[in-house]
């Protein structure tokens, strides 16, 4: 597997990266039970076709990786090299040849335009410095007609719930996690068709979002 370090000039230091680097062990103890099932169900529902080129942005320690089919080409990126080290260990243990992970800033992806059939991202857009920029980058690297799958906490449309969660946001902000991101705000003005948004269960704080990328650029076969 090929890994490169971020060159100095493009190595941003958003608040989130040191946090995740220093707390990998604690994170590993708590997060898997909460998140794994949610990601797995959403990835399986995508029915990813054989040979698809898939990018996961903010792949972290690789909790989602065993939910993808093995007959695809999967690239995972993350800003934290400590998180990626865990993912690499897992990939080596499982002898997965179809997965590559590398350090990269979600707000400045180094891939060419329209490189991927599917782009996924889980629990990451609320920890980057510029959520709109991350979403714009995801759309840029996704092919016309390609699909985007995202799971995250987004601000509730219900004013009461939004207010309660906003007050918790003062605490979670210290952990590098924002609670006030609005999905509509993040996708506004992007060439994206929102296909579905739903809660994994009625009480969940998280939203699963599926979208089609640059639908107006899709060329239909004659
Ligand atoms: C809450 S974790 C989620 C990890 C994984 N997706 C999961 O659900 O287990 C957020 C991840 O975003 C990464 N991250 C934070 N800022 C980033 C950035 N600007 N570019 C890429 N990754 C970033 C962190 O290093 C961390 O791995």
UniProtKB/TrEMBL annotation:
UniProt keyword list: Methyltransferase, Transferase
Domain Methyltransferase type: 55-149
GO BP annotations listed: methylation
Name of one Pfam family that matches: Methyltransf_11
EC nos: 2.1.1.-
Keyword Methyltransferase: yes
Gene3D superfamilies noted in UniProt: Vaccinia Virus protein VP39
Domain of life: Bacteria
Top class in the EC scheme: transferase
InterPro entries for the chain: Methyltransf_11, Methyltransf_Superfamily, SAM-dependent_MTases_sf
One MF annotation (Gene Ontology) recorded for this entry: S-adenosylmethionine-dependent methyltransferase activity
PANTHER family the record matches: METHYLTRANSFERASE, N6-ADENOSINE-METHYLTRANSFERASE TMT1A
Protein name: Putative methyltransferase YcgJ
Organism: Rubripirellula tenax
